[in-house]
Amino acid sequence: MASPPSAWPLAFIGLAAAVAVWGGWVDLGRFTGFGLVQPLPGLVDDFRINTAIVLPIGIEAYGGYALRTWLSSAALSARTRSYARWSALVSLAVGGGAQVASHLMKAHDITVAPWWVTVVVSCVPVAVLGLATGLATLVRQDTTSPAPHHQPSPLRRSPSTNKTDTQTHSDPHTDVDRHLSGHGGRSTHAW
Predict the structure, then answer these.
(1) Residues 156 and 172: beta-carbon distance below 8 Å
(2) Is 164 helix (H, G, I), strand (E, B) or coil?
(3) CA gap 112, 184 in Å, rounded
(4) Crossing angle for the helix pair 61-72 and 115-144, nearest 10 degrees?
(5) Whole-structure pTM value
(6) 49-50 and 36-37 strand pairing
(7) Cβ atoms within 10 Å, residue 31
(8) What would the pLDDT profile of 179-190 be if each residue is shown by its tens digit?
(9) Do the strands 164-165 and 156-157 form a parallel or antiparallel pair, or are they unpaired?
(10) Range 30-37, long-range pairs (CB < 8 A, 24+ positions)
(11) Taking a C-beta distance cutoff of 8 angstroms, is the pair 82, 57 a contact?
């Protein structure tokens, strides 16, 4: 049996991609109004952080997490893997679109993004939080819940005989017909 290929080249590939992606997202963040904020006013007035860094950290890290969950977690349910697949592809597409937008604006000396780009980019951190929470919840459910098993259906009383019916399930249309036939075809209830 052949050994799997070494994963160490991924470190170089990832580092190169991270540098390019980081720069593109930070520039796009600056073009859309992300920038220096004072997160602890009155407590630490000199502490400032550039909020543009949340963009590459959030969307790209989530894309990697979802991609890995999709491709390497065969023990997870089909529902979880499907969620991981589509959310990984969406996050990678959003990341790619952000890189294109950033480079196009920079190449054309645009320093303020169009309003619709600002709207989309502003929603990225919130969307990533929702996607990551959803995927983490599904993974946790799959890894901590016992395998689903068949739950017996509750026993029903047949309206005409008042006996327990364990052989068939009640059909609402049959129940109505049975009820009407027992009262001369007239309903005693106001529908």
Answers:
(1) no
(2) strand
(3) 77
(4) 40
(5) 0.67
(6) antiparallel
(7) 21
(8) 444 555 454 444
(9) antiparallel
(10) 31/102, 31/105, 31/110, 31/111, 31/112, 31/113, 31/117, 32/113, 32/117, 32/118, 32/121, 32/122, 33/118, 33/122, 34/121
(11) no
pLDDT in tens, 98-117: 999 999 999 999 999 999 99
Q: How many residues does the chain have?
A: 191
DSSP string of 39-62, one letter each residue = SSTTT-TT--EEGGGHHIIIIIHH
Contacts of 93 (CB under 8 A, 6+ apart): none
Contact by Cβ (8 Å): 66, 135: yes
Query: Per the structure block, which two tokens stand in for 40?
Result: 């602890």
**Rounded to an integer, what distance in angstroms lies between the CA atom of residue 4 and that of residue 73?**
17
* Residue 189, pLDDT score: 44
**Phi, psi dihedral angles at 165 (to 5 degrees):** -105, 105
Q: What are the phi and psi torsion angles at 102 (to 5°)?
A: -60, -50
Query: How many whole angstroms separate alpha carbon 68 and alpha carbon 1?
Result: 24
Token pair in block for residue 76: 């997870």
